[in-house]
Amino acid sequence: MTGLRKRVTVGFLSIVCLLFFSGMVSFLELSHLSRDTGEILKANKRNIELAKEMLDAAHEQNIALIRLSVFGDRSCDSLCRKSMERLENTLLVAQSEALEKSFLDSLAFATTELRLVTDNYLAFGAPPVPTRRRPCGPIRWAAGGTAKSTRPFTAVLRPPSRVI
Predict the structure, then answer these.
(1) Structural domain range at position 65
(2) Whole-structure pTM over 0.85, yes or no?
(3) Is 59 contained in some domain?
(4) What is the pLDDT of residues 64-121, one digit of tens each?
(5) What is the structure's pLDDT at 121?
């Protein structure tokens, strides 16, 4: 009987030791997982802050361009330039902190295009807006049944729309 009791006791203690070491390994892995999760959340918070900064800068520039183009308020030139620089600086910070820089390529391309459009608009201004609009002329029917309008055609240049 002593041999059987000894075997059961050794088996029970080995299971207890196995469970203890398994619990310790689980505890260590959970602490590593907790630390990694904290780092991920910290990086996500920083990314959200950078994205908010870029959106705020783009919004400020939009407001400045609307005031400039619609109301003719030339005092918004400096606000437009400052917000564009703020947007570019925030993008540079995001690119320097990013692990995978290729994710920001489309955003950098769109920012460059926005810079070109903004600089061209600020340099050359908007086309003059007529103070009195001509009434639209009647539609005249040309030979062959096609419609022809007497209204002058004006091309509007818009930046290409892209999904980022």
Answers:
(1) 21-126
(2) no
(3) yes
(4) 888 888 888 788 888 888 999 999 999 999 989 888 888 888 888 999 998 998 888 8
(5) 85
User: Using CA atoms, how far apart are residues 80 and 65, in angstroms rounded to an integer?
Assistant: 7
CA dihedral 12, 17, 19, 21 (to 10 degrees): -170
Burial of 136 (0-12, 13-18, 19+ CB in 10 A): exposed
In a domain, 108, yes or no: yes
C-alpha–C-alpha distance, residues 73 and 67, integer Å: 6
Question: How many residues are recorded in the chain?
Answer: 164
The amino acid occupying position 34 is S
Comparing CA positions, the residue from 82, 81, 90, 83 lying closest to residue 108 is 90
Q: Tell me the pLDDT of the chain averaged across its residues.
A: 79
Q: How many domains does the chain have?
A: 1
CATH number at residue 80: 1.20.120
User: Mean per-residue pLDDT for 140-160?
Assistant: 46
